[in-house]
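Regression test attached.
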Amino acid sequence: MSEISLLINGKQVKGKQGDTVLDVCQANGIDVPTLCHFKGLTDVGACRLCLVEIEKERNLVPSCTYPARDGQVVTTSTPRLEKYRRLVLELLFTERNHLCAYCVASGDCELQSLAYKYQMDNARYQYSWPTQTTDSSHPNIVLDHNRCILCGRCIRTCDEIAGAHALDFGKRGWKTNVCADINQPLGESSCISCGGCFQACPTGAIFSKISAYRGRPSECASVESTCAICGVGCNINGLVKNNRLVRIDSPDMTKPRGLLCEIGRFEPLYDATDRVITPMKRNNKGQLISCTYEEAFEAISKKLGATDGIAGLASGKANSEALKSFAELMDKLGSKMVDTLDGDDCRTVSQGIAKFDSKAGLDMEAKLEDILAADSIVVIGAHPSKTHPVIGSYIMRAASKNKAQLVVIDPLRNPFTFRASVWLKPPEGEKELVIKALGKSILDHLPAKATGEKNKYAAAFKETDIKKASKDLGIDLHDVVKAGEILAGSKNGIIIYGSGILQYKDSELVATILNLAALIGEKPRVISLKRYGNSRGAWDLGLASAKGSVSSDLAKGKARGLYLLLADDLANSQALTDSMKGVEFAVVQASYRSPVTEKADVVLPSLLWTEGKGSYTSIDGVTKKTAPMVKARAEIKTDADTIKEVARRLKK
Amino acid sequence: MPKITSIEALSKLKKSVEPRLKIRDDADFSHYKSSPQICIQQCRGMGCTAAGGDKVTELFEELINKKGLASKLSIVRTGCLGPCEMGPTVIVNPGDILYVRVKPEDVEEIFEKHILKGEIVERLVYHDPTTNKAIPERLNIKFLADQEFRILHNNGIIDPWDIEEYIARGGYEALGKALYKMKPDDVLEEVKKAGLRGRGGAGFPTATKWGFLKSSPGTEKYLVCNGDEGDPGAYMNRAVLEGNPHSIIEGMALGAYAVGNVKQGFAYIRAEYPLAIETLSAAIAQAREYELLGKNIMGTDFEFNLDIFPGAGAFVCGEETALLISIEGKRGMPRQRPPFPSDKGLFGKPSAINNVETWSIIPRIIREGADWFSGVGSEKSKGTKSFSLVGQVNNVGLVEVPLGTSLGKIVFDIGGGIPGSKKYKATQMGGPSGGVIPIEHVNVPVDYESVTALGAIMGSGGLVVMDEDSCMVDVAKFFLQFTRDESCGKCVPCRAGIPKLLALLNKITSGKGTLEDIDTIIELGEMIQKASICGLGQTAPNPVLSTIRHFREEYEAHIIDKKCPAARCQALFRAPCQHTCPVGLDVPGYVSLIKSDKPAEAYKLIMQRLPLPMTVGRVCPHPCEKKCRRGQVDEPVSIRHLKRYASDYAYEHGLSYTPAIKASKAEKVAVVGAGPAGLAAAWDLAVEGYKVTIFEALPIAGGMLAVGIPEYRLPKEILNKEIDNIKNLGIEIRLNSPVKDIDALFKDGFKAVFLGIGAHKGDKMGIPGEELEGVYDAIDFLRNINLGKFINVGKKVAVVGGGNSAIDAARVALRKGAEEVHIVYRREKTDMPAEEEEILAAEEEGIKLHVLTAPVKVLGKGGKVSGIECSKMALGDFDKSGRRSPKPIAGSEYSIEVDMLIEAIGQRPDTESVNLGSVKTSRGGVLVADKRTLATDQKGVFAGGDAFTGPWTVIEAIASGQRAASSIKRFLSGKEPGSRVERQDAETFEYSNIPPTDAETAEHARLKIAEIRPVDRKTTMKEVAINYTAKEAREECSRCLRCDIG
């Protein structure tokens, strides 16, 4: 980008082509007040605080929308501009009920600080005292219209970053208000609860219930970390006061993995109950009682060292350091039965990839950012809005901002179906035929030249009779044709699939999906949705047994002992509990007490991801580290250290 | 149906339809009987339809069918004709005979008489509101005759639902000409040469806008027609959409051709115009069928499509960026420019938006040439513009005139002036974004620059005419309420600022405002103008800023005097009559007491604020009655006569009223002049306990009341009785005692002086012959008669002037033996300042009015008057009072033979013979004093009455006397002067608070007071007006609406 030079307030400064005047001011440390500007959002010029004078421009212009040009002469502060800014503040303060003393944002409020800055300590206009309401219908978020300055930052965040567009302005004139959907209570609206709105709010008009009055953000310690919950790997800032997580923010919502979701934003803030805070072992009465680490290690080394046929199962919730130690421990034990809890998913995906291209591995999967750049998106058997909400937002953003065409293949309605260009509703369990029909339809629409290039992927689809298939599937032929047309014309389409496919444990089906992807755009782009925050890390370490499911081995009673690394996984499936029945000795390493820990002979405590330092690899293969945001209530070793200790004491 | 694939096909079609149209243009009624075809053109515009036009058409159709005349008679529903208030309108051709306000029951008469027999039904044609003359020919009606139909040329003629009729009138010829004979740049050049400026309001040159779009890179561009006409009281665009829809289609196609790369256009029409949307939709469908829209237009490879986008009712969507965003399906909110639509418009593509009217005139510019277009208009504003003329004007309707036409011509000639003999005050131009143009600028040429210079804007062309009953603060509030509600809510200055402006105005109209509030309003208003995103906010403060600019004194009246001069701001008063009365008489109170048959109490109530009730009850010009709410139902209550009734009752029954006098005070006050101002000041001061001496130069007391007003209007006996009653308070009146030096009064021990010396000196005309014997001025004449001095009244008398003195002098001359009396006045009768009833009485008595006549020379014979030479006058431009200034018509001179001439053209105070100390005088010799405190530059000296105001009314003189008394009281007690009158403690009276019954409020004219017959009164000075009887008075009282209750 070419450099431009401007004269601002008599000083020569540099900017880039495409910058706004405000961008240049901010980059050069020239203070221009704003309220409606928010980095990364479209500028709207609504608050009029950033008005500046530009030579030869007849009117005052908002610097946030005005393009900077080479040679421009700008004045950001004159008596008139300062008077108007003060007037704007007076108008805002008298428009609604800005009563700082009661406000959650007091001390962190942009409006309040500007008032101090402009010494607007009283207003000449009559206060309006409007009868605004407070909408607290949402479980996590409160919308208090009394404090709203209608800057629209929440609305633009909801639309442009979260892709939800649940918020907008309602009514007009002096009665304008932020409203959800068609003026519904926020709690009954299509809000996806990502929390972007309150992070963007310059005042206390939108705030998080759980964070409110727990401590002003400016008084909290801020710890940069990564959310380890779902495998998107979002960047977070934990705001901590008195060793308590007050609030989780994004360091920059507009950057990749900067958007947070309902789970990451709120779940870590709730106080964990039923924590395992000390090691436990069974006493001679068979009761599980607290003990020291030494006593626990002693009990483990006695049993594990002496027992053959130890199975090892690890959750993808554990960090990579723990998983690595776990692998070493199993190796030391000579175990032939090592697997992850989602081992089946791993095998289905990996084998599917191998069938598609023997030289390819998990690395051939696309990056999450590719979703934002996609011009078409196929969602098959996946509900990212529930399992990986940020991916859901990416899809919505691509659809609304880039006009990406959505093709949804799912028997059930989901948040994308209303936005989809085509929604194919095959009966449950009929995914393969619909994929094949879609593939054929794409082939039908591909230009002749492309058909040659794509020939090698075409085999899986060529023979499909889409008319018959549509009839058999009970779907509209036109939809299949339309979807084929869209995808055939797509340059950088992407396919996202998840548990709806993986549940069949059918690697052929995965291979077919990959072939389908190869027909769309210049290279196949596919993302499989993995179940845990560090699933990909565990898979990359080779923890998932290539031979088959260890869980089913367990169920068949093939193992005599079990080392179960759950970490902060709340896994308490009946199947897992049941499979432990045939085991003589079980060690469970976990953060939470559950029916699984109740079955264990020895229980070792795990730190929560918010308490420890660890590496996590996202579903698209990006490894990031967490940092401890809070200290655990007791002295708990890291999972890696605990496992290393266990390994060190093994007799073998 | 024919597809138009070439110019030839178009002209062939045109020729085949033309005969059908020819008849509708035939204004010669003599053709009627011989015409083989008869056409009835009926307006189907929204106005006429709402007034029941459909039923009228239906009945005509029925009759045509019943009589089997379908082959000879046709009925066509056309677009709006303009005079919406006269709807439903029906034109019958040949003859161009216009019927107005046609009701279903009138149809048969028109049919039987006119259609079948060729006789005009005079009853149903337009009647001139002043002369009441029937004007059957459409274009002889001034309202229509003075217009220039260019945009609306098809309205009233063609059926807008028939494309062939549009073609028959030259439609689509311009498109054919452009596609086959012109390059796109030629089209652009023609529009540029024409000097067409955007009719949406801002007046941006259309060709320049198109030029921007043309040079903007991109192969996908859009044109948009802005039909979101949302100004209250504006309906110009609707008339075009409903009456001439194809002109918009053709205009946009021409624009698309000129600009290039435009395949799609959108017409954004507000959903509140269902008929406009229907009509344009039908036109689009027809144009497509005829291949005048779509691909391969007229057989060329030019493609253009047009779709309608109905707006959802937000005023702000008339703003171009909001309109575009609205078409995109989003919330219609304006966005900051740049980028401008020509760079990034609809769907992010380069776009241009023009108003309905702009598009509509394009075809005619291309067909008839730029010179034709620019042949009318002013230097920088070419062509015509349509306006919707609404408000307090006789002819409400749609008006098209060349730009540069004076506002006065639109309001008074085309609009027919102000109804109900009210005074014109101002016109609001440009809707809620515009401003007011006050009466003194009524000559302004209506073009973009001139109107903007006065703080208003052209806007889309709404003209709201307001009369004296409009309060300018209230008007500003009305428009601000509108913009407050219609702001999009996006930017802070507009959304949050307008409600604050409104709150400040509400504060002022409820009497709680301060002068600082005006400054706050101006400061905030300017900030809203400068800091808002779009035109809505940038112009929203205009109504308030322009009313402050032109009517600041009206704001100050609300703030300082707590008065709403128009009597509209109800929070300031109990009842409009009381509020308007200069002395604030409790009118509802005494009217109620008379109604309850307690005239004596009514008299006492009146006496609380008016020591001269019998006098005022006879000669007051009763401003109260002008604001009486009953006048909006039928006629105002006869408040003045009721006052006379109550006070005459007291007089006849020997009752008099003396208020309680406060403890006597040491200070002596001198009042100079025993006229109404001096008497009122003396009364109030005496009640306060001051010792008052009145110095009167004349041998009798009463001032103008005694020596200016003739006996037959105010008997001396009545006046003297009232003066005696005033003297009863211990006031000394020294007659024949002119004051020569006010300083001497202070030396004599007076601590304060009130100067109420009146205006007793007549003005001269300044024409040759004024020095001749037999020339009098009216003031001298009347004074001498009143003082009983002998004057040899001539046989033939002429009086010059149009005020009350002129009428009085004329009527007195008649009574004193003149055989022939003429009144010569240079303007029209309606412009005469004299009371309407006085003029009428004079005419009844046989006095001859020569209006639009001015004397140029007094003719003499032997040193004596023998006649006057007069010139007829023509009315020219409007002067600052909103009246047309008369100009002599060369060669129109004529003489009137007279032996006496009385000049009554003006009067002034005689201040030259008095040593006024440091009291200053101003133009016309009037005394200079503070408007509210009446304090002069000399400490302790106060001035009021005609000497301060110039010749004015008795009630104003009394009010100023009371004001001066209040100031003197403050002065003598060492207080700072106050801006409002502080009154003595008044007695209170109980009166009924029962609102009038339905029977009482039902329409019922006022009860006229009886008068002596003209033949009898001409020879006597006996009082002309006869008092109400008790029953009559009570009956008249029952007409009072009792605005003071609730």
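Expected vs. actual: identical. Chain B is about 40% helix and 15% strand.
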